[in-house]
Amino acid sequence: MDLKLDGKVALVTGSSKGIGEAVARGLAHEGAIVVVHGRNKAKTEEVAHDIVAKGGRAYAVIGDLTKEDEVQRLVDEGQAFVKPIDIVINNAGGSGETQDWATTRPETWATGYDRNVLAAVRVTTRLLPSMREAKWGRVVNISSMAALMPPYKRPDYAAAKAAMIAMTASLAKAVAMDGITVNTLSPGTIHSVSLDEVFRNAAVNQGLAADAPWQDIERTVLPMFAQVPMGRVGALEEIADAVSFLVSPRASYITGANLRLDGGMWPGL
């Protein structure tokens, strides 16, 4: 299926590694011009250069999304590289410290909200005017299944990611007549570098070798972390494919939605 993304310009925040990197590579593969973002200059430029080396089009911008002046600078730089950015993937954020209700602190909540929610607000509000003028734009906010199925640990993270879902629904209504769609994507258990390390360490405790085949590790360890009906973790490429579809002209009637990529883990309707 041709997603008709050739020539579209996408800023993917937090794309020097993990989910963001996979999304940036996926969009580039579909023909989009990608603005790769990160705080680590070397890693961010490495991703952009590799995309270009493989035939894609990419640029790198560096900046801390919790700082207004840095957000303005990186947005200006991104818009100067190519024509105005018409797709933004708000992926940057993260969970921060591991706390529960016995150890959580208000300042941790404030920091997590700033890093996840306000970072997305800072970027999005700067890009909306040009999208509205063009009468076309796409916003995808990366949330988490923790927003829908909050664990007892990291309550601040679950609350921040839930706020992103509410933010999506509000913004989608505000720009619905402007040719702009706004959606959330909520990943479940995804095979990232960090998850691979955690699973392999847990596998050793269960008597498996750390370098055992991934399918053996997944089969043994996954039930200890999550009850996934599909019996496997998701792949980064599956997230990239879902995002590529959501931002494409083919998804023009989908807005205000929260797409769950969880292998059937969500117990609701």
- Tell me, what's the shape? globular
**SSE run:** EHEHEHEHEHEHHHE
**Number of beta-strand segments:** 7
Total domains: 2
Counting H and I runs of at least 4 residues, what is the number of helices?
8
Looking at the chains present, what oligomeric state does this protein adopt?
single chain
Mean pLDDT: 95
Return the CATH topology of the largest domain: Rossmann fold
Query: What's the CATH architecture of the largest domain?
Result: 3-Layer(aba) Sandwich
Estimated radius of gyration? 18 Å
Percentage beta strand = 5-15%
Calculate the terminal CA-CA distance, rounded to whole Å: 29 Å
Structural class: alpha/beta
Q: Tell me the helix content.
A: 40-55%
Largest sheet: 7 strands, parallel
Assigned CATH class of the largest domain: Alpha Beta
Task: Give the key terms.
269 residues, alpha/beta, Rossmann fold, 2 domains, 46% helix, 14% strand
Describe the overall structure.
The protein is α/β, with parallel strands linked by helices and 269 residues long. The chain has two domains: 9-189 and 234-261, 3-Layer(aba) Sandwich (Rossmann fold), CATH 3.40.50.720; 191-233, no CATH class. The protein is 46% helix and 14% strand. The chain contains eight helices and seven strands. The chain has helices spanning 18-29, 41-53, 68-81, 106-134, 155-174, 193-205, 214-225, 236-246; strands at 9-12, 33-38, 57-62, 87-90, 137-142, 180-187, 258-261. The chain has a seven-stranded parallel β-sheet, sandwiched between helices. Strand 5, helix 5 (155-174) and strand 6 form a beta-alpha-beta unit. Helix 1 crosses helix 8 and helix 4 packs parallel to helix 5. The longest helix has 29 residues, at 106-134. The model has no long low-confidence stretch (mean pLDDT 95).
